[in-house]
Amino acid sequence: MRWLGFLLAVAAWAQMTLDQAMDLASKGKFAEAERALLGLEKSQPEDLEVRFRLGLILLRNGKVQEASARFEGVVKANPDVATVWLAVAQTRLKLGDSAGAVEAIQRAEKLSPQDPPVWRAAAMIYEGTGDVARAIGFQERWLRVAPNDMASQLRLARLYEASKDSAKAVRIYQEAIDRAPEQWPPYAGLVELLLAHRTSAPALTVLEAAAERFAKNPEYWRLLGLAQYQMGDIGKALDAFLRISEIAPDEEMGYASLETLLADAGDRRGEIVRRLRGFRTRKPGSPIGHYLLARCLLLEGDRSLTVAALLRQALQADAGFWPAAFELGQLLEEQGKTAEALPLLRRVIQANAEYAPAHYSLSRIYARQGNRALAVEHRKRHGELVDKEREAAERARTENPVLDYRVEKGR
């Protein structure tokens, strides 16, 4: 009987039409649509429309290689359809063939040079291949016919950021805010850009103007906290980050945002500890609560077994959470337990080879063990990474100068 049911189901798929299969997709039944189209492909192997639609569903279902095979077959049989070349460009890019993706999008451009959807697709393909100038050109053409496409407007702003034309990026973000003041993404994009350029006072102005609209948005408070921190107002930054834990008490974001402020929290650290205790009780599977509570206790001078236990709990929750491995390694080294500390610190540099403090700690332990070669190697690596970080910070200041940004009246 089970086989009979199976055979009847197969027969039903074989009888299904292309329209019925695509109707399944329109209802979100993508797995069923894929099975239906596979049946149609088997019964109608020469039907290019079936193969193309199947490719689209396979791509939607994350089966890029299989989708690519369908698209490449269709375009080989009929190379004069721009839409198919767009699909070929997309799959080639996803498979890492940048040159092939460019070739495909250029074929689509030649076939339909005045087709706005081709411009939109070309912008995304050129962005994906790193050709920012061409991506900007096509994105601007697309926005001239679709000025209300918020996602494309934000993409254009990010492209201008990538091209180091921050003034134009700011203008585009501001235009997006003016066009849709109730939407959060353009505010977030503008504030993040201003903060990247250390233009924190205008960033605060933008956020304060948006407070009433987004007071329940945790991301709003995170950016507000970052702006306050950049301004040097630790108290207000703490207020903002703690507000996240009130709006979303079971989300990691607010607690993780507090990490850089723990050392400066002073007498407010007790409040943070209370919230962290509640969070880790509710969310024992998150390493954040265990780790940050341990950090708070360490800052209070606590070197007890409780702290080590918290750090081990963080690693039990997520074995790849290297910050907990580093703190535990530091604590064990401090207690003279270098044999236990060593594998933890090695784990840190396996996860993050460019974390300079771990190399410094390893050099210290190897020196204590008499392994001069490894001690010198890690001390040298530590110095290289510190120099690299300093150069990167200087380069960022040069490449991201403070912006001349003024909020206009009424904004």
What does this structure look like?
The chain has 411 residues and is mainly α. α18 runs antiparallel to α19 (287-299) and α23 (356-369) packs antiparallel against α24. It contains 24 helices and no strands.
Write the layout of secondary structure elements.
Elements: H1 2-15, H2 18-26, H3 30-43, H4 48-60, H5 64-77, H6 82-94, H7 98-111, H8 116-129, H9 132-145, H10 150-162, H11 166-179, H12 185-196, H13 200-209, H14 211-214, H15 218-230, H16 234-247, H17 252-257, H18 269-282, H19 287-299, H20 305-317, H21 322-334, H22 338-351, H23 356-369, H24 372-399
Helix pairs in contact: 1-3, 2-3, 3-4, 4-5, 5-6, 6-7, 6-8, 7-8, 8-9, 9-10, 10-11, 10-12, 11-12, 12-13, 12-15, 13-15, 15-16, 18-19, 19-20, 20-21, 21-22, 22-23, 23-24
Brief overview, please?
This protein has 411 residues and is mainly alpha-helical. It contains 24 helices and no strands.
Query: What fraction of residues sit in β-strands?
Result: under 5%
Shape: globular
Percent range of helical residues: over 70%
Low-pLDDT runs: 1-15
Following the backbone from N to C, one meets helices and strands in this order, namely HHHHHHHHHHHHHHHHHHHHHHHH
Helix- and strand-based class?
A: mainly alpha
Let me know the largest β-sheet.
none
> C-alpha Rg, in Å?
28 Å
Number of strands: 0
- What is the distance, rounded to the nearest whole angstrom, between the alpha carbons of the first and last residues? 70 Å
Mean pLDDT: 91
Number of helix segments? 24
